[in-house]
Amino acid sequence: MDPFLLEALLNGVLLGGVFALPALGLNLVFGVVDVVWLCYAELVMIGMYAVWFLYTQAGWPLALACAACLPIVAGLGLALHWLVVRPLLTAPPINQVLATGGVLFVLQGAATLVFKTDFRSLGVDMPPMELGDVFISGTKLIAFCAALVGAACLWAFLKFTYVGTAIRAIARDREVMPLMGVDPKRIYLIASGVGGTLAGLAACLLVVQLDVHPFVGLSFGPITFMICVMGGLGNMLGGFIAAFMMGLIISIGGFYGSTELSYVIAFGFFILMMFIRPQGLFAR
Amino acid sequence: MTGGNITRRGLVQAGAGAALVASVPASVRSQSGPLRVGVMTDLSGPFAGAGSQPLFWGAEVAIALFNERGGVNGRQVQIVSADSQSRAEVAINEAERLLGQEQLEVVTGIYSSAHAVPLSGRFEQAKKIMWITSAIATGVLKDKNLRYVFRPTVHSDQYAAASVNFIHEHAQARLGMAPDKVRLAVIYEDGPYGSGVAAGLDAEAKAKNMPIVMKEAYSATAPDLSTMVTKLRRERADIILHVGYNPDITLFLRQAKSGGLRFKALIGHGAGYSQIDKLSETFGADVNHFCNVDPAATQMLDWSKLGAGVGDLARTFMQRYQAKHQSNDPPTHASMGFGNTWTFLEYVLKPAVTKTGGMTADALREAALQVDVPVGGTIQGNGVKFAHPGTPMSGQNERSVAVVMQFDNGKSKVVWPTAIGVPPVLPLPAGHTYAAR
Questions:
Q1: By CB distance 3.0 to 4.6 Å, which of A121, B188, B299, B384 could disulfide with B198?
Q2: How many Å is the Cα radius of gyration of chain A?
Q3: Are B135 and B115 in contact (CB under 8 A)?
């Protein structure tokens, strides 16, 4: 096999891992609360700043900075739900979208005020793995493994805990579950906290790959939404698989065509899928 | 209205006053009071950190210094700033505000070519002056026969000519290769800036019979460029010619390193590559000996060789800029912001206002077409003379100069044109992170 093609394939898989985590978080929140957090990528951005600040400015070890990032962004997720989403739970969907869209600009503006527009870098570098002519980025590989572990933990939480079961049940039927004794408001809050935690984990994985700046969300935010819709909004497994599909389409499209063309193919595929299966590829 | 309270009557009075001011024709208002000049740059969004903010800061220093030196016969210049937020639609809206509500006769700045292209048509239509201090795409002016748009800085074809000529000149002696054996790869962001420079690189390389083994565009906000890195490795490019903003440049360099990409030289073309302080902070010695094409930042020049008084002007600018912004090696954009704004103030605004007593776009246009600053007459070493309407590049400064510079431990040094530069380090020395092995 052409080693460069193999490398492009591996790049695609690793890229899928990068997309998968925020897609999981976004899908979880939508599946349970039924509100799209348009500002999800900006929560990740705040998490990236948190890691950058704790590691480069406060001098914390990187692992500790990453560990602290999770509760910080989880707290942000809780605050977002409590202050913005909860009062709008019965409002028309457009109001909810506009409200979380407004938070997007607030977070971008706040980051610009506090951190200015400079591009911040952790300066962390890991040697690549060389397998003959194939190079695999060490940073990406670690991020990919961490994303898989994160996804596995989420699956175990949803599958084997009482709260996880309640979350899945609410996602399945929002009307009936309250009649069976589940407090939806509490579950919404927990799901928002878990969604925030996943955004925090995504921040930890992205901050070693991308520079942090107030608009870094533009790099992966739109494609994350696309992945969620393609996999079926609210369908976590669908979003997870769609993330890898998108990573591979971009990578292989770029290999045989061009980087620009690869995104055209990816978006074209998305549009086609919306015609064929508007409910999402993996919607039940 | 009393104290801090705003009454309905006060509001009505204030509104009436504002309406009265707005109803006075600009030609009458421009006879007295401050001279209002628009400065539109990207103070937020990705372009801010890729040179647009230093562009604004440079202009700020120029206007403050100009005012300190008496302005125009005692009349001070007042900045009306606009943040185009790195978005073309915002730039268009802000231009409408500056032209409509603010009733400005001139707007300076404009960092991005993606903004300059739509704005130039609007300013031409409104018959107001657009004074571009940064956006470089040749297509902004070429064959448009614009009469109210002026660009004192370089255009993208000059970038292409500089980098290809630089490699062509040094191929045999330093790379040990005939020029037609040097494998060039062109990667560029897909906006007017990147596309403009890439088209120029393509044409220049063909004219010099140098092979381009790969030419590829990408979006500046792309989250991943690793497949492009894989292809560059496959094509065994000797020289990477990169046209990017930021953060795409840092993403590319990071993924190139982890993707095992090695080359003999990398030449950037302004924008993100001119932010040497930031690149050094992120990559340290890894960016040593990378090259960059842009107009020279003033600190790279021998000020004693500039025109009378220009060296002192450059020194004053540097002192003020560095004191305020703590920059080790201020980016070219700072010099462009200062120098190109100073050219406007000194050689266009001052004579126009002195001659007509007012500040109308037509008076400014007439003055701009008369500008004749010899080489060495600006802090970046270039002269200024604009191509007149009826010529293919109407509005372009025909005496603008692009140089090739090379990074050397956090500082940039001019290496081309050879006559004014120091000898370059080519190829990247053994042991360099990106050096071909």
A1: B188
A2: 19
A3: yes
What's residue A100's pLDDT? 92
Quote the pTM value: 0.84
Contacts of B201 (CB under 8 A, 6+ apart): B160, B163, B164, B184, B186, B212, B241, B243
Contact A121 B282 (CB under 8 A): yes
Q: How far apart are CA B385 and CA B350, in angstroms?
A: 17
- Range(s) of the domain holding residue B208: 157-294+402-416
| ipTM, interface predicted TM-score of the complex | 0.88
Share of chain B above pLDDT 90, in %: 76
Cβ-nearest to B251 among A4, A210, A254: A210
What pLDDT does B246 receive?
Answer: 79
Does residue B89 sit within a domain? yes
CA B112 – CA B399 distance, rounded (Å): 21
pLDDT value at B56 more than 90 = yes
pLDDT digits (tens, 9 = 90+) for B160-182: 999 999 999 999 999 999 999 99
Q: Check whether residue B408 and residue B280 sit in a common domain.
A: yes
pLDDT score for A279: 84
Tally of domains in chain B: 2
- Do the domain assignments include residue A282? no
Give a yes or no: residue B254 inside a domain. yes
Residue ranges in chain A modelled with pLDDT below 50: none
Confidence of residue B376 (pLDDT cuts 50, 70, 90): very high
Q: What is the reported pLDDT for A284?
A: 63
CA A207 to chain B, closest CA, distance in angstroms equals 12
Quick one: which of B123, B119, B84 has its CA closest to B364? B123
Q: Return the pLDDT at B93.
A: 96
Q: How far apart are CA A151 and CA A129, in angstroms?
A: 24
The verdict on B216 and B236 lying in the same domain is yes
Q: In CATH, what number is assigned to the domain containing residue A241?
A: 1.10.3470
* Chain B residues close to A119, C-beta within 8 Å: 49, 246-247, 250, 278, 282
Question: Are B166 and B289 in the same domain?
Answer: yes
Chain A residues touching B223 at Cβ < 8 A: 15, 18, 210, 219-220, 223
Supply the CATH number for residue B209's domain: 3.40.50.2300
* B276 and B410 co-located in one domain: yes
Report CB contact under 8 Å: B227, A138: no
CB-CB neighbours of B129 under 10 Å: 30
